Amino acid sequence: MKGRNIQIGPLAAGFAFLGTFVFFQSAYPYHLIRREQMSLFAYDWEYICQTYRGDGWLARFLGDFLEQFFHLPLVGPLVVALLLTGIGTVVYRICRKFLGKWPSLGIALLVFAWSFMRETGNLYVTRYTIVTLGYLSLVLLALQCRKVWLRPVAAVLLIAACCWPLGMPVHKYYGKAWGVPRVEYDRVIGLDAETAREHWDKVIKMSKNDLYMVEASYCYNLAHAMKGDLGTTLFNHSQKNHWSLLFPVSSEKSVFTNTLAGEAWFQLGDMTVAEQSAIVSLQASPNHTGTRYLVRLARVNLISGQDGAAMKYLNLLSKTLFYGKWARSMMPGRQDEATRAQLAEARSRVAQHDFVHNSDVPRDVLHELLRVNPGNRLARNYVLCFDLLRYDLDQFMEDYAGDMIPARLYQEAILIWLSRNDKLTPQQVTSYGVDLSMVDRMGRFGANPSAFRNTYWYYYLKALNELNEQ
Fold it and tell me: Which of 23, 153, 229, 464, CA to CA, is 20 to 30 A from 288?
């Protein structure tokens, strides 16, 4: 506007800051939380000296220090917004030494957009944004020299001097040159994060919109199993055979899938697979650390009675900012009555002896857990749903007979089995605790299957139709 001096640089920086903050706070919130789960910063001099040495030590130190705050809402997006806006601002000021206002703004926006897209990468690490900002700031500092010939010399000397503490601004896996936001994947990461926090109601709420991804179904199933209604709600969500219930732990799987795999096994009582999941995930994480994995290893060893091993993880976690209080409260000798009761209840579900098994076929593992504790309702529901998802009604009836859980899906499966074996009589129906009105409902299903999509009848019929088409 005529007569007014518009400060386009600060205005653009303000919009960039607000846009970045809102995006990571509202549209991409769990991306930063997962990054915090995969990193660790301990307030211990010996740990710091051993961890932050060698090439890029300063950038790794600053990156881990900042990433611990990604644990908090608002603070994590604020940190990222400040870093990215700082990059854009520094580039703008560098360009203004050589170019006009608008060309400088265009270049600054391009570099900002590039840095922003990198930040949205799946396994991106904050230190590479810090390194980029650091080197650009050194160039800007060198341009402050009054003598023109001295500027490039100063830039080269400053960058050379900081190569060791800052390191490279890119990494083959964790600092890729480009990234793309995956908003739906962030929702799956959110389900995973809330599952790890055992916020079952929140997981169920977040699952209302089906993502049709096996990882999302896995979290949905575990949350409903913990709430005790999986036998009714299973087919309100998409399912991919038994893989929607239990994941195997494998070095061929991603760190995300291996981490998720341990959640259900931990709740079921198989501490061996839960520990394996945490160790494999720990080894595959960018820094081979991660607060989430250390917390899981500490809990597994406490439940297994390995207090010495648990103390190794608790001592390290006790020196962190956001997990220190929890770690100190879990140390043997400091546990309150409620904590001791929780650990005792978890121990009642654990197998009494270690045994080698293949988690690809988990039915035997579930039966072992039920043998140890027949009252393990979570394992009972899991084995029944496992049978249903594999269409194995004969095994389902064997598993159901020992403990007839009054759930709708189980009753629907019983009616199919009775009908298939010519036993669909009122006496047989009632002997399995099935209400006779379910028979009439199955008749209505036969007349209009599409009106009963959340039933086991529909799931079973769809499988039969696919088999006939083959």
Answer: 23
